[in-house]
Amino acid sequence: MSKCLSCGIPLQTTDENKEGYILEKVLDKQICRRCYKLQHYGIFKPAKVMSNEKIIAKINEKSDLTFFLVDLLNINFEVIQTFFKISSPKVLVISKVDYLPKDFKYQKISAWLKQEYGITEEIIYLSSKKNYHLKALEDKIIKLKAHQVYLSGYTNAGKSSLINAWQEQAKLTVSNLPNTTLDFVQLKNLNYTLIDSPGFNYETNLFLNNETTYLKQLNPSSYLRPITYQLKPYTSIIIADKIRLENGPDKLNIVCYFSNLLNLKKVYQNNNTLKDLESVPFSLKNNQDLVIKGLGFITSKSNRDIKVYLSDSHLLEIRNSFF
Length: 323
Prior knowledge:
Layout: H1 33-41, H2 52-62, E1 65-71, H3 77-85, E2 90-95, H4 106-117, E3 123-125, H5 134-144, E4 148-153, H6 159-166, E5 185-188, E6 193-196, H7 212-215, E7 227-231, E8 236-239, E9 243-247, E10 252-257, E11 264-267, E12 278-284, E13 288-292, E14 296-300, E15 304-310, E16 316-320
Parallel strand pairs: 1-2, 1-4, 2-3, 4-6
Antiparallel strand pairs: 5-6, 7-10, 8-9, 8-11, 9-15, 10-14, 12-15, 13-14, 13-16
């Protein structure tokens, strides 16, 4: 039986509780019920996902060229290590740059990526929404005479949006929810085949797949506007009702880089919200970032000790800031 044109899962007409279910009378539409409900009603149903190892193995076996997408808020060590595991010719694509200020210096990001993470591969800055640098991807395919072109990246990196902007005939489900693409989806062009890969998943996730209210807030709805806080001693910031960042005995200046849809609020020492979670101490230095995987990052503007309360310390990373 054929595959769903949207998520790539094999279609089946026998069990409506399993992935790929479609009514026999609409089998010619080749859109599974899960994707249909997501496209038309915004109803999201979590599904079994492909492992990162299996995705990488398929890409390395078949790909002539891989575009690895990541947006600015989701650059971290785990993502970059996955990028390095792709052995075929590859390009790092910084997606969703329409969220960045117009005067943003991309050369500065490229230099920082090379110094902080050891990126030596070509970097392309992309906005599928505004068709910015789509031609640069096409030119790369032509230059390498690639026939099998894979689009990869962590969930919600913008892969399906890119294909829909690139190929008018594409009908992939575009959503700001994770794991929309469940299997490899092929789109044949005149000279090459585009393959949308299932999204990679973090080893540890801040949000569960059924927490759709939070998941829908991860993409900024407008330009990324950093929020600056001057925290008094023992004042905390609550981030998306999931993380508490608590200042120490001195004043602290921080800048938060998150989606403008996420809820941030300041609380004081007598407020015990989230203090039942794991407590992780950090010594932040001036111009260092505290990275929260899948969410964004916070830049410190002074040398201070802080404490972070959250579900799993593996969600955090310290790096040098590019700002």
